[in-house]
Design a protein that fits this description.
Helix content is 28%, strand content 19%. By secondary structure, the protein is an alpha/beta fold. The protein has one domain: Aconitase, domain 4.
Length: 156
């Protein structure tokens, strides 16, 4: 599974309420979530996520276990999220909806092209390829299918 996009740099400890505020969870309309993603952090950020690879500090996705946070990122057009660590439930929610996550501590420059290959286990942030932790074959299969629901539809 390969991808590339331009970097959007974020700090450490981005919680799910920062990703999508609870006041928008009364609707099931995913386009509303995408429209308001990161609104309380930076109201203009959501408009700039299509084709982006988010590069953040440690503990990305901490806080509540809301699945809508990962969905909001994917709906906004995020290609992948790179961080040194992720909250465990956010990690599984993201994989389950088909949003690639890469555990790596990399230097971020806003707008710089980032390429990755999850199957081969590398990321290139513009300074050359470096190895990253590989996902399991099962998680890669879920991502390739587009998420857990799509994976099981193909399996049956």
């Amino acid at each position: 599974m390969q991808g590339k996009g331009r970097a959007v740099c974020l700090p450490a400890d981005i919680d799910t309420d920062i990703i999508i505020a609870g006041r928008y969870l009364r609707t099931k309309d995913r386009s509303i979530w995408a429209e308001h993603v990161f609104e309380d952090l930076d109201p203009s950020l959501g408009k700039n996520l299509k084709g982006a690879v988010i590069v953040a500090g440690k503990n990305f996705g901490c806080g509540s276990s809301r699945e809508q946070a990962a969905i909001a990122l994917k709906e906004a057009g995020v290609i992948a999220v790179v961080a040194p660590s992720f909250a465990r439930i956010f990690f599984r929610n993201a994989i389950n909806i088909g949003l690639p996550l890469i555990e790596a501590d990399v230097t971020c420059t806003n707008g710089r092209q980032i390429a990755f290959d999850l199957s081969a286990g590398w990321i290139d942030t513009g300074t050359g390829k470096r190895k990253v932790a590989r996902l399991s074959l099962h998680m890669l299969a879920i991502l390739r299918a587009g998420g857990l629901v799509a994976y099981w539809k193909v399996k049956q």
